[in-house]
Structures are given as C-alpha cells and as structure tokens.
What we know:
Blueprint: H1 3-9, H2 50-62, E1 67-71, H3 74-82, E2 90-94, H4 99-111, E3 115-119, H5 124-130, E4 135-141, H6 153-160, E5 166-170, H7 175-178, E6 188-192, E7 206-210, H8 213-226, H9 232-242, H10 245-264, E8 269-273, H11 283-289, E9 296-301, H12 304-313, E10 318-319, E11 329-331, H13 343-349, E12 355-359, H14 365-375
Parallel strand pairs: 2-3, 2-4, 4-5, 5-6, 10-11
Antiparallel strand pairs: 1-7, 6-7, 8-9, 9-12, 11-12
Helix pairs in contact: 2-9, 3-4, 10-14
Amino acid sequence: MDISTLVVHGSEVKYDNTGAVSVPIFQSATFAHPGVGESTGFDYSRDRNPTRSHLELTLARLECGIDALAFSSGMAAEAALMELFSPGDHIIASHDLYGGTRRLFDVISKKNGISTSYVNTSDLRAIESAITEHTRMVFVETPTNPMMHVTDIAAVAAITKPSGILLAVDNTFLTPYYQRPLVLGADIIIHSGTKFLAGHNDTLSGFLVVSSAELSERLRYIHKTTGACLSPFDSWLVIRGLKTLVVRMDRQSKSALAIAEWLAKHKRVRKVHYVGLPSHPDYELSGRQASGFGSMISLELDSEETSRRALERVRLMQFAESLGGTESLITYPMFQTHTEVPPDAREALGVNERLLRISVGLEDEKDLIADLAQALEG
C-alpha cells in the first residue's frame, strides 16, 4: 500500500465499534478489568492507551519497524533511548547535531557515566577510528541540523552491525515519507514528532521506532517506568497531522527548492545549505537513500548586521524556534537551537553570527521570496 494511503488510514487495528471515522480520544487514565486476572489489553494509560497505540502502530507501519513508542517530546524519546546504556559505555554521534541533543549527551549522559565522541559521520573512516571496545551506539542525524550534512546510512550500518553496535538515526527532517532508515540498516529511529509528523506547530511529541522485538521489550520497560508517555489528546493531534504529511511535505519541498535557488543568487547570501541543490556535496547520496530533499534551508549571509536585520524585518516568516509546521519559521541557531554548544565547536561547524535556518511552510513560494527580498534589502 502506498504511503500516501497509509498516512490517511493509519493502523488497521481498531479499538472501538462505533464506526467513528476519526480515531477516538480515549481520555482515561485507567481501565476497568473484566475480572480477576483479566484485561482488555489496556490497564493504565502510562503503559498503554488506545489512542496512543493507534498512533504507535501507524508510525511503526510507516517506518517499516517492529514497534514504535510515543513520548511527550523528542527529547523525552532521546532520554529514554539513553537509558539503554550503562556507566562506562561509549557512543559516537554526528558532530553537527541539534543543540538539545548535545546538551543531553554532554551533561545528563556524561553525569551517568556515558561518554560521547563527536565525529563527521559523513566520513566513514572517522566513525571507524572512533570505535572502541566500549562503543555501544552510533547516533546519526541526517540531514544534520543546521548544516544539512548527509550520512550514508547503509554504509554506517555495514560498520556497526558486525560489532553489535546499535545504529540510531534521527529522521525528523525527512520523515518516513522521504527516508526509511530501518530499511537501510538502522536499528532505531528517532523523531521529534513536534515537527513534520504533527505538522501544525500546535503540539509536542517524540518517537522511537525499532527494528527488533528485543529492543521493543527493553524500551517498552523504560517507557512505562520513566513515564514520559504521550497524552491521548496529543496522540490524536499527531494522528490528525499525519493524514496530510505527504501533501504537506511535497508542497514544502517544492517551495524550498525555489527559495534555495533564489537565495543562491542573492548578493547578500554567501552560501546556501539545501540538500536539493545539485551543488550540495551530498546531493547524489541523498538522491540514492531518500526520495525527497525536505524543506529545511540554512543560509550564511554577508554579515551579522544583515542577519539581525533580516530577523527583525520578516513579516510572513516568523522568527521562532522549531520547524516542520504549516507556517514558515526562521531561526538564529547561534542564539536559539545551538546556544549551549561550546563556542569553538559551534564556530568549527559554521554555526556563526551570520547563519540563519529556514523551515519552509505552506505559504505561496512567491510570497515567501518577496518577504525575504524585503527583509534582505539595505
């Protein structure tokens, strides 16, 4: 069945017999037992809830996974993932990584005795060189946030699998519509469902999707025990958002390409980072492992003054954190998403005072270009 059909109809498992077309919101904390030692399959909503289960089954189906677990945010999903590891364990992560993930690894995970090596995961030799006897996971963001580097997922899997090292891939930017990391050899997928999956800038959510029953069992125990589960109403919001995922992403990606091409010719733009431009160094790789390029653009302008002026003058695009929603957002990574990344590491990545990031929404591309044109004047 085509994914454009799957996102509309979701899981085939139904939990009510009313014929409701929209999945019901089972707003109940607890569920009655039919008898002693008997269960309907639902006992307490921290463990399982019918609305959340429908969403989890849907996402597992979309990502070709064994199971999916829904969390209250993307960071809650990542925090649960890190509970798989013990003091002394080592992980390797993409060096160009969302700042909140780096904060988790560098502060919370470090406190818990887990060490992290940051490498350019686009460089397979760098990954191989960083592996030690204590390495338990390679964590990849692709494309990366905000510099849009692409990692060859299948090639990394060929390195990790023989050693029993887990490969986790953050698939937030491309979603299962454009990229399916489990099919390419990954073990775990991470989503900030707040972004493209929910798609309307109105709810937080996070997901882990796994390739094996063993990982499902371990993470289900962590999920139930630590308790950062997604509420029934927020689960319903993501279910509703998923129904338009395909049409949203196609429209947003088309507009992003037009905007990136326009930016590449602008006199105040030094560099455009958009994977869909043939000039991008990872254009061919992305074309092999993904079916689309997404709608995230980063651009380096000619000065800090131009960057600040653009942020203050945009009218349609809103100066706000987050991405993947119906409204176009423009972000200043140095002072928002990456503010806690060490300055030397940030500068080395190119996350400087001239870099902006755009999440292209559903507005008309000509209107967005006109907005950028007036914001970059002067």
